[in-house]
Amino acid sequence: MTKSTDHQMPELDFNTPALKRHRKIRALKDRMASMGIAVGGNSVILAVLLICFYLLYEVMPLFSGATIEQQASYAVPAEEKGDSLYLSAEEQSEVGMRVTNLGNIVFFSIADGHVISTVDNLRADVKVTAFAVESDTSRLMAFGYEDGKALIVKHDYRISYPDDKRKITPVVEYPYGEEPIDVADFAINKMSLRDGSDSLTMVAIGDGKSAITKVSKDVNFITEEVELSEQRQSLPFVNEVESVLISGNQRYLYVATRSGQLSEFDLRDFDDIELKDNISLLKDDAKLVSMTYLLGQSSIMVADSSGRVSQWFNVRDNATNEEHLTFIRDVKQPVGLVNVAMEQRRKGFATLDERGIVAIYNATSTRQVVDEKLTDGTARLMSFSPRANGLLLEDGKGLHFFYVDNEHPEVSWSSIWGKVWYEGYQEPTFTWQSSAANNDFEPKYSLTPLAFGTLKAAFYAMLMAVPLAICGAIYTAYFMAPALRRKIKPVIELMEALPTVILGFLAGLFFAPFMEENLAATFSVLVVLPVGILLFAYLWSRLPTSISWLVPDGWQPLLLIPVIVLLVWLCLAVSPAIELSFFDGNIRGWITNDLGITFDQRNALVVGFAMGFAVIPTIFSITEDAIFSVPKSLTQGSLALGATYWQTMTRVVLPTASPGIFSAVMIGMGRAVGETMIVLMATGNTPIMDFNIFEGMRTLAANLAVEVPESAVGSSHYRVLFLAAFVLFIFTFVVNTIAETVRQHLRKKYGSL
C-alpha cells in the first residue's frame, strides 16, 4: 500500500521586524532622494534667477531719471559790484564765482552766499563793453573795453589743509600780464578768444568794424622764456552779430547774427582770411539766443527763441576732402529759451526757458533726464559745477544752488541699439568705443556691433562644426564597427577637455599667420578634400570584392587617414603655383585690391576653424548618443521589411533621434555664443559690423573679458558691460527655450515610432 504525503509551501511573513525596518529605511531613502533632487533642481533655478535679478539690479540705474533738489538760496553776493555776466563753481562745489558787467570778480561760499573775496577791475576807469569765456574747463576769460583793448584773466582755486581741514582759496591770475592787449582800434561790442599751446586768437567786433588778433608763443631755447608776438588783421564785417566762436584748433571762425545766419571764415592763412561758407542755423522766424561749444570744442550748440537747441559739427566730404558745418540733431522745449549751460566733463547741457523750467539733456543720446520748474521765470543765468552734480542759478530773488544727481545721461535705448552720429564721423554708425586718451572723449556704447560679432562668430563656428559633427556621429553610431567605435568616441570626447585658451593661443599665433601665408592652400583644401574623399570612396567601391573584403566592414574610415594627409600635402605643395598662375603671386593683394574686400590676419575664418574645433566634441557626443540609443527593434524591423541601410537611417533612425540631434546643435550654438578666449585671441577683437569672412569681430563675451577689469565700479561703462552680460544671458535663454520647444515637438511627432 502506497502512502502519499502532501508537501505544502510555508506561508511567507512580510511583516517581520526585519522587513518592516527595511521598508522604513528604503522609504526614508526615497524621500531623502526626492527631497535632494527637488532642492538641487530648485536651487539651480533659483541661482539662475538670482543671476538674472542681479544683472537687472546693476543695469536699471542706466535708465532711471535724474533728480534735482535745491540746497541753498540767498541774495546775490556783493550785488553792489555789478550785474552778473557769468557764474561758475570750483571742483568741490564749495566756492562759487560771478563776473559782473563792471569787470569785477566776486568769490562766495556756495553753502550760504557769504563773500570770500572780490577782485576789482584793473581798469576801473575804462568801461567794460564785452566779455568772453574761452571755456569752462580752461577757466580763461577776457574783458573787452571801449578803447579796443582786452584783458585776459584766469580764475583758479588752491587747496590747503590747515589743521587737517580742507581750505579752498580762490585766486585770479593774468596769464598774459596785467597790461591789456591791443585787439582793435574801436570799442569792442562782441568778442571771442581761443587759447592753445602755440598761439592765442582773439576776435573783436564793434560798430561797423571787426578785427582778429593772433598772439604767437615762441619759446626761447636759451632762456626757456615764452616770447609773444602779435599779428592783427581786419575781417569782413557782419551786421547784427549775436555770437562769435573760434574753433578749438583755431582753424575756423563762426560769426552768427540775431536772425541765425552763420558766416564761417577760414583762419588757416592768417594773411588771407576768406569767407568759407554761409549757413542758416534757425528755422522759421526764430531768433538766436546763444551759440556755444560743447565739451571738446567740436560741436556747436545753437539755442533759439523757439525752444530749439541744435547740434552742429564739421563733417568731411570725401569727394572734395573739405569740412562743412553740418546739422546733426536737435532737442526742443515748448517755449523760448533764455540761457544754456554746458557740462564741463560730459557731452551734456541744460536749458532754461521763459517759464523758469530747467531741462537737462545729453547731446549724444538726446536723452532728457530732468525737466523741472526751478524759478518763477525771472532767471537769466545758470552754470554747472565741474562734476555736473551742482547747478548755480540766478533770478530776480537771488542766487540758488541745486544738487543734481545725474549719473548716466549718455545711455539711452537709441544710443545702445540705434545708429548715432558721433563727433568726427562722416555719418551715423553703430560704434563701440568705451574709452580714449583725452578727457573730451564722446563715449560710444552701441551694443549692436558686439551682438553682431557674437552671432557672426557663432555662425561661422556652427557652419564648420555642425556638418562634421553630425555626419561623424551618424557614421560612428550606425555604420562603424563596434570595436573601432569604442576607440574613436572617447578620443573625440577627450577633445572637449582641451582648454579653449590653448585653442585660442594656437589659432592666434600659429594658424592665423599660417593661413595668411597659405591662403590658396586653405581654399584648395576646402574644395579638394571633399572631392578627393568622394572619389576615393567611389574607386574603393569599384575594387574587386577579393580586395575590398580584406578590410572588415566598419573599419574603412581608417583608410581615409592617409588619403586626407596626402590631399592636404598636395594642396600645400601646389599652392605657390596656383597663387602665381591665377593671382600674380599675391592672393591677399588680389582679395584686397581686385575684389575690394578688407583682409585681416585674425578673421572670422580663423575663428570658424578654431571655435568649430571646440564645438565639434559637444555636438558629436550628444548626437552620437541620440542615434545609438534608437531601439534596435526599429532598425531591424525596417531592414526586415526590405529597406536599405541608408533608407533606414534617413527614414527611421534620424527622425527618431531628431530631438537629441537638435538639442546637440542648440547646445553647441550656446557654447559658441558664450565662447570667450578663442574669440579674444584668434580675432582682431575689433567691434565692427561686417559679415566679411576675412574681417574680425568682437563678441559680447570677449568684450566683457577685456573691459570689466578696467571699468570703474558704478560708472556708465561698468553698467553697460552688465547690460552686455544681460543680453548674453538672454541670448542663451532664448536659444535654450527654442531648443526645448522644438525638442518637445519632435518627441511628440516621432515618439510613436
Automatic annotation (TrEMBL):
Membrane topology qualifier: Multi-pass membrane protein
Gene3D superfamilies: MetI-like (1.10.3720.10)
Record keywords, A-Z: Membrane, Transmembrane, Transmembrane helix, Transport
GO BP terms in the entry: transmembrane transport
ABC transmembrane type-1 domain segment(s): 451-739
Family designation: Belongs to the binding-protein-dependent transport system permease family.
Pfam family, one: BPD_transp_1
Localization, UniProt: Cell membrane
Chief location category: membrane
A single GO cellular-component term on record: plasma membrane
Protein name: ABC transporter permease subunit
InterPro entries the UniProt entry points to: MetI-like, MetI-like_sf
